[in-house]
Specification:
Length: 334
């Protein structure tokens, strides 16, 4: 899974520009799925049909988002510096000094107008991207061009560090789950969604199209295990986090029960997640059409939305195990 995750995180994929990530996923899942399609918003939808035709098969949608946060050029000044705004939840502190890469391959570094106040979180409109240009005419970036963090994948052994582990970690977990399921009584839709970071726009339309009876998002969740973190239970290396609450949704208690029972029966470590800030694709599934019974499994992740997010390999493996166990058996949720 490390090699897969390396490829996925190194691919460019800011919200709305997910095609390179989608192509990578497609090459992995094509031999594993019964049907594959791409919808108008770019969501990649892979279906695994019930192993034996069964009228009581539950239609279940799994969602992991392909997109990552990024920057978008808003103005090029006369000296060739690129002014920008955010695509999704970009933090000034994490952005200043970062290296970025535009979709067209141009690279740059983020500077700040107000360096004498560098201890303050710099606002987006006081930073610029220096792409090495000397003038506006010389600048290879146009207004509307998008950029992502540029950062190497670092294998620390049990811990992995990369940009866009939010949510390529979830993408890798879904691919490995699809690979691990040998047979299922359920009708499974593995959906790799677009534009989560700008408000789960892909998941909403995908859920409308798939019309699932159950929805599960697989995404990362920030932890409470670093000196500066919010007081939360989630820790790296303690297993998948079963979501109870985030700022966008309350998980359906029947889905929580299904997850906990499966984890306990299969002796998979798990954590209880109450996330104080942030949300996932599960929200859009839950409120799509006339409503969908929904929940989420989260992979604990440090430094979310920085260029150096960190996950634990055992958490990835245990998330695959939990999902595989949940989806390989008839579902009792009513
Ligand atoms: Co995110
Ligand atoms: Zn995410």
């Amino acid at each position: 899974m490390k090699e897969l995750l390396k490829q996925l995180t190194q691919a460019f994929g800011t919200s709305g520009y997910e095609s390179a990530v989608r192509d990578l996923i497609l090459s992995e899942i094509k031999p594993l799925a019964d049907e594959v399609r791409v919808d108008a918003l770019g969501n990649l939808i892979a279906r695994k049909k019930p192993t034996k035709a069964d009228k009581s098969a539950k239609r279940i949608m799994l969602a992991a988002h392909m997109d990552e946060i990024g920057l978008i050029a808003s103005h090029i000044d006369k000296n060739g510096f690129v002014r920008f705004t955010n695509v999704g939840g970009v933090f000034g502190r994490y952005t200043l000094g970062a290296r970025v890469r535009f979709a067209n391959g141009v690279k740059g570094v983020v500077g700040y107008d107000n360096l004498e106040r560098f201890h303050e979180a710099p606002p987006m409109n006081k930073m610029y991207i220096d792409v090495g240009a000397a003038s506006k005419e010389d600048c290879p970036v146009k207004v509307g061009d998008v950029a992502a963090f540029e950062q190497a994948f670092t294998d620390m052994g049990e811990r992995l560090v990369a940009k866009s582990l939010d949510d390529r970690a979830g993408v890798a977990v879904l691919i490995e789950t699809l690979r691990a399921i040998k047979s299922t009584p359920n009708d499974l839709y593995f959906v790799f969604t677009t534009q989560e970071e700008v408000g789960s726009r892909g998941a909403g339309v995908a859920a409308y199209g798939v019309e699932p009876e159950l929805g599960i998002a697989v995404d990362v969740t920030p932890t409470g295990d670093t000196p500066a973190s919010l007081k939360m239970e989630m820790e790296l290396g303690k297993g998948p986090c079963i979501k109870f609450r985030d700022t966008g949704m309350l998980s359906d208690p029947r889905v929580i029960e299904w997850m906990i029972q499966t984890a306990e029966k299969s002796k998979i470590p798990y954590q209880r997640e109450v996330l104080l800030a942030g949300s996932t694709d599960a929200r859009e599934m839950q409120i799509s059409r006339a409503g969908v019974i929904s929940g989420a499994v989260s992979i604990p992740c440090r430094y979310v939305h920085s260029a150096s997010e960190m996950v634990d390999v055992s958490d990835l493996q245990n998330t695959v195990k939990l999902l595989t166990a949940m989806l390989s058996k008839p579902v009792q949720v009513k």
